[in-house]
Write a structure and sequence with these properties.
homotetramer; nine-stranded mixed beta sheet; 12 helices; globular; 41% helix; alpha/beta
């Protein structure tokens, strides 16, 4: 139930020894648009070897990062929304090329707002759906995409797996693809509210702030699943881990003996995590750490993401 | 789209000329429990003739009424919750006798909270689900019923018919029956927040505060559907109708001529409604009338209803 | 307690016989900006004679109207926000000229979000405050205005008059002026969500959707009070009145006798209202009529108004 | 800004070496009612020496604890509400004996719901106020207490200190005393949602989940202030501290050398905290740790607390 983790591929990549070092089966690309404060990173997990190393499935993970996202600058959010729409369209094009979704403008996209609307850091998905303009119920003879949307709720409130609910709805309404929105857990506090991750691999067990036991993937749902996420919490275990690391350094520099530091250095990351789990598990369960202004962050970014989706799928939104 | 209506069978029955008069194919029973302020009414629509006369499908409609429900007396709400559980169990027993649901204690009930959580008088269903204790996700080897629950949202937010969403979920999770909770439209203001209706006929087009175009019935969902509703609004047309009637009486008593009153008397109810529709439709659409303290009413009654369901299905709740 | 009314000066003006006709002590000005769909109307009540005729205090009432406001076009809302900021700045300039507020850039403005956050059509004020960027708590050495904000709640929840709460806060924090935001009651349904009224007369008894018994004016608070309002409801009595008027016309054209129509024509507006009150009062109380999609309207316009305030007071917002 | 702390006097007391050991100027009393699962603890800080040792002001801190509080057992919550009302009445009697509040039944109590309604673990105060029955606005010739209530909001939303807002309201409405409700920070995770603290010392800087810089005490507000709190978060620093302690033990038992453990033992608590602060401050700010089901806890306990207040002040509630 409890798990130390990051939902961000870019953080997983950074955690490898000799940061920036090569991992077999994983490619990394970083770039910035001209005149933009947004840093883009694409982590591509190319094969099973990369997947094992990263603990994440094969696929593409694009990260948009900017410290200013944590602030409420409106023009800035528009820029991020546009970048999100560009990345969404790129992934969509690829899905069409691979004949995973039909090459029509009016494809039907089911947008899923995961999470618990009454727990602030877990409410990103429901809030995005609150801003979303669905049009499947309108008779528009349109050339745009057809959007439908659902907030499936969390298992403690429904008694059902999210995957069950979605499979049923997909069975009835036959969308061409799914976009799932979820609040994520990061390993580093500086990521909170400053990063958007877009991936074509769907949602995996242990992803997200809440506890979504079953995966929401092409394999489980029978449809391509893009996932958009923003880290809003850090697991308590990650905090403890980072602090132990920092403590190790402090001890090494402040004390004559380096044994404590040495001890920590001797542990490989898996062993360190094991130790943390032993310490935390019985008492802490799935506790998470979140800043007190997370409500503002979630409100703002839910708007940015819904705008990004509108720009990607509705022609009259993209001309800005 | 716009429709003058009451969702309460008891009001429909009252509207017949010579109130309390007999309607072919409809039976009426009224009673009070000893020492209780709750008035119970059962309207049974027995055949197609009754259904046509009442404009509602064949089935049983039980109404629990009490002025005190509009107040916040807690002991009182407990009494109403208990009465609701008694009526629920009676309907359940009948469903079992007719072999529509299996005669086991641990039947699986899907509870559906209809309506829009962000529109106060339409938020009854979602609020009941917020209080509901689902247990399908727990492994209890229990003798109690298995409850799951869903808030499907409204079409303007999902782009999907509620019936589509529910059919899908039923297909996947295979409940034995459905209980649907909805805010209702009454014809009389004094019903707002003072009445709970329980019926075994499900939800029909035009029922509820919002606009649920497709019906949620045994026919459409393939499962027995009990529906629990509380009137929280009166359609604008009903207000106008009542006022015209009152105006007719005022004119008749205040003026020398009685032609206006006579004119209104000559119109049968259908014609009166037709006239009102002509007047209202272009301008008013689906407007409704609601009191300013409806938030308190919805909050309290959502708790009463969730408790009634708990008492009906969970053994450790019923011993009070 | 119950009252038939409009909070819009422009509607009050329209209600005079020979619409558009002159009223002594009241001036009317209508205009459109070039290339804009926004219609502006300024009703100036010049003296006590005008005030008596209009049933509203001496002062200026500016209305921004546009059907498109009911839709979610974002660029359009920006245009309205800008126009609101222009009108706010005009009123502010006048207050400075009259030495009612100091002629400094960094004046301290207390923004008040009136209404009940848990009743959808009454939640405009609290929602605007949810979007507002206050800065009184920041130490910025700024040249901008200093904003503080409060959601005082409603008397049923606080047991206090809103005026008491505000007087206390003003006593402690000494702002230079107040801007009060409130949901309004209109007389005509087509105004709902399509009109913003800005006035320099504050809030008066009977204004707003809820029941604010005491006035919030320069007289009661000791400070200039600008008020921004959007009609979100129509009183049930206004609906009835409009329908009776329409019924009169229908009867006049459909019946041989015109007595009913004549009867209604003979009544002057006050008498008509008196009749409606007699009919409605005992049963209906302060009921109001509102459309089912009012949640979307309130959400959108709360954003438009907060942006208008930001543009009026923060220099880095106005350069768009 | 950042602070490692517990708002619970009982935890502060437990932290002293030789747990349960005597602290000069502090008395401790623990008891259980017959047939009750509630454990009561009274920590009385008797003088300045005790205040310095405890880091909390002179006064009485009563804690009601029960693991079952974290569950949703309704009868159980009623028992806790009754115990809270007993303790409230005891503190009230003492205030009357000391002539700090008038010895009348109809004293006027201002109930203050501190915290941010849109951040789940900080929303306890606003939620209690949502359940509270104020009656100051009613003309009842009553013998009961007069309750008024306010949700002042948080400084990031108002730009004002909570103390400023309250001082103003007290100036205008002249209550006899204040009861402040706030979400608290505990040091131990097992306290979350299982403990209610009642104190006659008011709210102090650094108390509560959010950041209330100024104190709300008899000194600052000019009135006796009772405070009711429930721990809903643990500061990130406390987690780190507990883990370091546990790590120390693990190292001591698993490693040959005990230097690491020794190192930690050598540090007195203040030094340990200093170290944690150094580690956490730059990066973590005021981060807190909270469980994912905190929404349910806050919902349930807000109801328990409002009922406790009703039972303490309204005669028709106490006869249960």
């Amino acid at each position: 139930m409890f798990e130390i983790r990051t939902d961000l591929a870019v953080e997983e990549k950074e955690s490898f020894p000799g940061r920036g070092g090569e991992v077999k089966g994983v490619s990394l690309r970083e770039w910035r648009k001209a005149c933009s404060k947004i840093k883009l990173t694409e982590v591509a997990i190319l094969d099973e070897q990369g997947a094992r190393a990263m603990g994440k499935p094969v696929g593409t993970y694009v990260t948009m990062e900017a410290k200013a996202l944590a602030k409420g600058d409106e023009d800035y959010h528009r820029e991020v929304a546009e970048e999100l729409s560009v990345q969404l369209k790129t992934m969509l094009k690829e899905l069409k090329k691979k004949h995973k979704v039909p090459d029509r403008k009016d494809i039907h996209v089911l947008v899923v707002g995961l999470g618990n609307p009454s727990v602030t850091p877990d409410s990103l998905g429901p809030k995005v759906l609150g801003n979303l303009r669905v049009n499947r119920n309108m008779d528009e003879g349109q050339e745009d995409a057809v959007l439908s949307g659902i907030v499936p709720g969390v298992m403690a409130q429904t008694g059902m797996e999210t995957a069950e609910i979605l499979k049923g709805i997909i069975h009835e309404t036959e969308p061409d693809m799914v976009i799932a929105i979820d609040a994520l857990a990061a390993r580093s506090i500086r990521r909170l509210g400053t990063t958007i991750q877009l991936t074509n691999t769907g949602i995996h067990p242990g992803s997200g702030v809440g506890n979504h036991r079953h995966s929401l993937t092409e394999e489980s749902l029978g449809l391509p699943v893009l996932a958009i996420g923003v880290p809003t919490v850090v697991g308590a275990a990650a905090i403890v881990h980072d602090t132990i690391a920092a403590l190790g350094k402090t001890l090494a520099s402040h004390m004559e003996t380096q044994e404590m530091g040495d001890f920590l250095d001797q542990l490989d990351p898996d062993e360190q995590y094991q130790l943390i789990c032993e310490l935390l598990e019985p008492e802490f369960g799935a506790l998470y750490v979140t800043p007190p202004d997370i409500d503002q962050t979630v409100k703002r970014l839910s708007y940015t993401i819904s705008e990004g989706i509108h720009m990607a799928f509705f022609s009259h939104f993209s001309a800005s």
